[in-house]
Amino acid sequence: MHAELDRLLIDAGLISKQQLEKAQKPLKRNGESIGRRLIKMGYIAQETLARFIAKQYNLPFVHLDKLEIDRDAIKLISYEVAQKFVLIPIYKTEKDISIAFSDPMDAATINSIEFMTGLFVIPFAARESEIKKAITKYYVPHNKPADIRKNKQ
Known about the structure:
Layout: H1 3-11, H2 17-24, H3 27-30, H4 34-40, H5 46-56, H6 71-74, H7 79-85, E1 87-92, E2 96-101, H8 107-117, E3 120-125, H9 128-138, H10 145-152
Parallel strand pairs: 2-3
Antiparallel strand pairs: 1-2
């Protein structure tokens, strides 16, 4: 999350300056994002934060539980990338790929994905828990072909 967004959350009355300061203290040690810390500490709900980011930056908000994800889009982003950056591809066309992010303002990740795929990224905001659930549902990193055969017997 960005310093500007920190200020916007305070200005909107969604968190207090004291809550932000408390959430920032452990960040220096563990590298966790401020958004995740605010959520973990109970200062803001995932959906509230995701919808606020979407509104502030004029991005669409998506409920992944209510969406059928395009499996061709999934194939373009590795499980490792999806897991590391907490994102899930949701749809692709010839020229672009729509991706739900927990941090849709992460320009470096968006640029990397555009370079990797050769497609323009259309960012969507979504709840982190829904993204993680979708990653588990659509990526099967633990099953090797031998494991799949065992499960079918």
